[in-house]
Amino acid sequence: MSPTQFTVSLLLVLLLRPSNASLVPRPQQDQTLSLKTTPHPQIQYHNPKLPPRSLSLASSKKFEGSSDLVQLRYHMGPVLSNSPINLYLIWYGRWASPQKLLIKDFLLSISAASGRRSSSAAAQPPSPSVAEWWRTASLYTDQTGANVSRAVVVAGEHEDVACSHGRSLTRLSVQQVIATAARAARFPVDHRNGVYLVLTAEDVTMQDFCRAVCGFHYFTFPSMVGYTLPYAWVGNSGRQCPEVCAYPFAIPGYMGGAAAGGPKPLSPPNGDVGVDGMISVIGHELAELSSNPLVNAWYAGEDPTAPTEIGDLCEGLYGTGGGGGYIGQVMRDGGGRSFNMNGRSGRRFLVQWLWSPVLKACAGPNALD
Ligand SMILES: *[C@@H]1O[C@H](CO)[C@@H](O)[C@H](O)[C@H]1NC(C)=O
């Protein structure tokens, strides 16, 4: 570690200290700073203190900030280093076009716009961007020294509007959903670069959804799908449990709520609590899928059946100064909508940070140091 890196880590350690540390007294519930560095005058930084999301999900996996105690280790397996990562989307249940476009705009924002600067400079989203956020995921390597790919494309889509395997899925039946999609004519089995993303509509339930998971990733079994393919599932929690899985756009009501003068949920950047909330979960799962696709590469903890991965370590953290109930410094636009990164087509997103193997701390493109 160079002296500069050390200073940066030290700064992060200090900045990410939980707010109850005596070092940084924070009397207010919502800190607002107007900084000259914000790109537009109407954009402000704020660091809201919110009640924690569900009790069940605030598990021991959640870790805020930075510590030498986090032993994230490499277990010799592959990472998704082939370029580009080909995403195959399975829309399960009824999805509105604007919702699909929003999710695809996020996925397509992960790749930094390519080379031709002169023509694409205008199209390049301003910093902090989704592509800069993904840079943290691309710092993970396998034993050959190959990094997680920086390029992510949507290579195919399949619609299962009628829910071929019912509206109540399990961890196993979601593999049948993938098998059914993979038999469709224009939906290939891509062994080399493929990743399968099953996105369920808000009326579809999933085993453990809302109680223990908002999304998960794993790989398919040859006995069920015919092949071993990395996949992730993320559900739209809008109707089932937004205060759990679309946090912080919905928060638990037990603190008395906004009406009683309690903290208010954040306003979602694209006006859709369920889908804006899904975006951060999709980011979390994709980052973990890429650094731990067969669950034998990057994770912390001794138990491979309950690995703590690079998204788990930073759940609920969206900016500098998060922890102890604060989500971190994020931006708020003139309409009061919160976000922490920019994407293609002028989109804005609020996405959780990822654990950096270089900084040994949670990192994101909107860090204020
Ligand atoms: C690959 O990962 C290593 C180790 O984290 C990092 O130092 C390097 O900059 C990465 N390379 C690319 C091209 O991202």
Tell me what the structure shows.
The structure is a single chain. The chain is of the alpha/beta class and 369 residues long. The chain has one domain. The protein contains 8 helices and 17 strands. Strand 16 and strand 17 form a beta hairpin. Helix 2 packs parallel to helix 8. The longest helix has 19 residues. It is globular. Keywords: Apoplast, Secreted, Signal. InterPro entries: EXORDIUM-like (IPR006766).
- Helices, by number, come to 8
Level of helix content? 10-25%
Mean pLDDT: 86
Q: What would you call the shape?
A: globular
Question: Topology as H/E string?
Answer: HEEEEHHHEEHEEEHEHHEEEEEEE
Number of strands: 17
Task: Provide the number of structural domains.
Answer: 1
CA radius of gyration: 20 Å
pLDDT < 50 stretches = 6-28, 115-119
* Ligand roster: 2-acetamido-2-deoxy-beta-D-glucopyranose
Biggest sheet, spatial arrangement of strands:
5-4-7-10-9
Features:
369 residues; five-stranded mixed sheet; four-stranded antiparallel sheet; 17 strands; 19% strand; globular; apoplast; secreted; Protein EXORDIUM-like 5
